[in-house]
User: What shape does this take?
Amino acid sequence: MSSFLCSFLLIFIFTSQLTTANINNDNKLQYFCDQNNDGGNYTTNSTYHKNLNTLLSTLTSNKDINYGFYNSSYGINTDKVNAIGLCRGDVKPNDCQNCIKNSSVFLTQLCQNRKEAIGWYDEDTCMLRYSYRSIFGLNETRPFYLGWSLNNATNEDEFDKVLKNLLDNLRNRASSGDSDLKYAVGSDEVGQNNNQTIYALVQCTPDLSKSLCDDCLVKSIKAIPRCCNNRLGARIVRPSCYLRYETDSLFYQQTPDPPSSLQVPPFSTPPFAQNTSSPGKSNKSTTIGIAVGVPIALVLMVFIFICIYIRVREPDKRFEEVQEEEDKINITTEQLQFDFNTMRIATNDFSDSNKLGKGGFGFVYKGRFSNGQEVAVKRLSMNSGQGDLEFKNEVFLVAKLQHRNLVRLLGFCLEGRERLLIYEFVHNKSLDYFIFDQAKKAQLNWGRRYKIILGIARGILYLHEDSRLRVIHRDLKASNILLDEEMNPKIADFGMARLFSIDQTQENTNRIVGTYGYMAPEYVMQGQFSVKSDVFSFGILVLEIVSGAKNSGIRDGENTEYLSSFAWRNWIDGTATIIIDSTLNNDSRNEIFRCIHIGLLCVQENVASRPSMASVVVMLNSDSVTLPMPLEPAFHMDWSDFQDTNPPSSAQELSVNGASNTELFPC
Assistant: This one.
C-alpha cells in the first residue's frame, strides 16, 4: 500500500459546500470540513455538539452489522445530526469498526465546530461523514479527490481497452448489489503474453439505488481519460462511490475472511520444512525438515536482532549536530522563557477581545506588558496538530535567526500543558488579509508590492545562505508573511522548518507538511525537499502578489485553473497583462512583467532549472540581468478538463497539516 501512495499524485477538487481539503499524515486522515457560513457552525457543548458526539459514539454499536455500512441519525429539527460510516468491502468487521471510531475522533478534532465534514481514514479503508442535512440515498459526487500513478502504460490502446472493460464489468456488478453491500473487485490481463495484471475495485454506499450507484461510477470512469489517461494506477474517491485500480500490487483482499495476522509466524514452520510427502510415507522428512529449518530460523532471527540493535545504537550525525547547536543555545532560550501568569495578565486572561487570529495550532492574541510593549502571543491548542516537536523546533530556530524580514521571537512559555510563543507585534496582519481582499488590496500599490516581494526574497536568502544555520521553511505562503506598520514583510511560522547542514542539498521525509498549491511537486510526490522547495513557494507568492488571486483557482471565462498554469499560458501567448491585478492600473509595467517572469522561473517543474534565492535577489535588484525563458510550470492543469465538476473558486485553498494554517484558510 505504501508504494502506491509514494508513486501517486493526489489532487483535491471541492466545491463551495465543503471547502477545506486536507491530508493529515500523522492521523492518516484525508478530510474536508464544511465552510458554508449558512448554518455550518455549531458551538461547543451545544445540543448539536452533544448529539454529534452521541451519534458517533454509537454509530458502530450494532454488532449484527458485518457488511461495513452504518447509517444513523440523532436529534430533532435543527439539532439533528446524520452520519454515514462505510468500510471498503474487503475489510473485516472489527477492523471496520476500529477504523470508523478512529475517524470520528480525528474528524471532529480537525473539523472543530463544523456541522458537516467527511474523511477517508487509513488509505481509504473507511469513510465517515456527518451533516446537519439529510445525506442518505443521495448521489453526491463532490467533494472528491483524484490520485494517479506517475508511470504510464507501454501499450496505451490495449491498456485502456482492458481497463474500461474491467471497470464497466465491475460497475455493473457493484450497482446490482443489495442494500447491504454494493462492491466488486476483479482483475484482467494486459499484453499478448498476459505480462501485466490490472487489479480494480469499485464500491458505492449501499443506500444508493442501482441507477444512482451506476451514475456515480460512470462519472468516475469518464473522469479517468481526463485526469489519469494511460496511467498504471488511479483512484477517484467521492462521498457516494469509490474507484481504484493498480498494476503493481493486489491492494484488496481476495477473500472475505483472509488468514488472521495472529496465526503462527512463518518461522515456526519454514516453507522448506513443511511435510510434502504422500500420506503413505513416514514423517521422517518432516523431522529432518524441522531439525534443519528451526536452527536456520533461529540464526536468522538473531541476525535480524543484531542488525536492529546496531541501527538503533548507530548515532545520527545530523541529530548530533542539531543537539550540539541546541546545547549552545540552552542559556539563551532559558533567558527567553516567560512566566505563564505574566502572559495571562498581558493578554487579559486570553480574552476574545485580544484575539488576532486563529490557525490549526490554536489562537494568536495581542498582549501588552506593564512597560507598554505590545506582543503577539501564539497559544497552542491542546488538540493542535502542532505539538512539542514543532514548538521546540520554532523556539530553537527562531531564537537563532535575526533578520529584518523575519518575525522576531521574544520568548516562550512552557508550563504544564500550556505552550506559548511570544513574538514582536506586527501591526498590519498578514499578506493574505490584504492581497486577496477586493477592497483592501487597493492599499497595496505596485511600489509596496515590489517592496514586499523583495523583502520576502531577502528573508528566504538569509534562511538559505546567510544565517548561521541553513533553514528550509517548508510552509511559505501568503498567510505566513506578516506586514509591519510600513508594510515591510516578515516571514513567520517556523514550526515546520527543517535544519540543513551547510553542505547538504536535499533531504527526504515521509511526513509531508505544508500547504497544497505552494508545495513543490518533488516534495508532494516523493517527499524530497531542498532550498529549491522554498524557491517554488516563493514563485507562487510572487504570482499571487502580482495578480491578487490565489494559486488554487483563477477563472478565465468558464474555465478555472491554477494561477501558475494560467500565468504560463498567457505569458506564452503574449497576453501577460491579463495576469496583472486590475487595481494596479498602469504602474511600472516592465517591472511587473519582470516579476511575473521571475515567478515563472521559480515554479518550473525541473528542480535544477529553478534559480537560487541569491540569483532571484540579483534579478529583482538589477534590470540588466538577462532572464532565461521559463519552462512549463509544475502541476499544469486546466480545470475545464473536468467538465462534470465545479472547479475551486479563487477564495479556496488546499493544505496539509493544520498546524501551520491560519483562519482564512484551513488542512
In short: The mean pLDDT is 76. Residues 284-313 form the longest helix (30 residues). The longest strand covers residues 182-190.
